[in-house]
Amino acid sequence: MKKIIALLFFAFILNGYAQKSRTIFSKDPIVNLENFQKKKVYYGFYLGFNSYDFKIDYKMKGPDILVKKTTGFNVGIIGDVKLQEYINLRFEPGLYYTKRDLYYPNFSNSGDALREVNSTYIHFPLLLKFSSLRTGNIRPYLVGGLSATLNLSSNSKLMDDNLQERFRVKSWTTNYELGFGIDLFSEYFIFSPSIRGVFGLNDELIRDNDPSSPWTGNIEALKTRAILINFTFH
C-alpha cells in the first residue's frame, strides 16, 4: 500500500510537470529561473526510493549467504552552497527506510536460515555537485562525496545474538557516494531526478558471542551497497 501511494504521488507530480515540458524541451524554450544560478545558498527537499544490499567477504570458501533486497523509501532536505560557477557543496540529511533478508543455505530449519535486517537510517551525505553548462532549461550534473549513516535499528547495544534471532550491526558506518542527475528548470521551481550509488567503507557486522557461530563466524567483512533514486525540488 505504501508503494502504491508513493507511486501515485510521483505520478501526480510528474503529470503536472509534464504540462510544462513544452517550455523545457522545445527547440527555443523560454529560459526559466534565469537568475537562479547566481544564488550563493539555496535549499530544497527530496523524496525517493532505495535498494540496499550487502557486500559480504568470507574467511573461507563456502556457500554464499543470499541477500534478498526490497524497495525502501527516502525523504530529506538539502542545503546547497555555491563554491564556483559549476561547483556546489551540498548537505543532504535524510531518513531512509529499507529491509534486507539474509538466507543461510546451510540450515534446513527455515527459522535459523532466515535473518530479517530491518533498517531505519539517518543519512548524512556531504557532496560536491559538478554541473555542466546550462542549455536552455536543462543542466546535467555529477555528484560525489562522503557520508555517515546512523542505523536506528542496528541492535548494537543488545547482548542477544543470532541464537536469540538477533542480527546485529554497528550503529555508525561511513560511505562514499557517486551519481548523476539533471536539473530541469520550470517556471516556478527546479525538479532534479538523480541516481546515486552508496558504497560502505567499513565492516558493519557485530559478531555473535560464539566465535564459530554459523551466522557470523565465516564472515570477514559485511559492507553496505545501495542504489538511491531521488526526486529533488528547489
UniProtKB/TrEMBL annotation:
<dbReference type="InterPro" id="IPR011250">
    <property type="entry name" value="OMP/PagP_B-barrel"/>
</dbReference>
<keyword id="KW-0732">Signal</keyword>
<feature type="domain" description="Outer membrane protein beta-barrel">
    <location>
        <begin position="22"/>
        <end position="204"/>
    </location>
</feature>
<feature type="signal peptide">
    <location>
        <begin position="1"/>
        <end position="18"/>
    </location>
</feature>
<dbReference type="Pfam" id="PF13568">
    <property type="entry name" value="OMP_b-brl_2"/>
</dbReference>
<protein>
    <submittedName>
        <fullName>PorT family protein</fullName>
    </submittedName>
</protein>
<dbReference type="InterPro" id="IPR025665">
    <property type="entry name" value="Beta-barrel_OMP_2"/>
</dbReference>
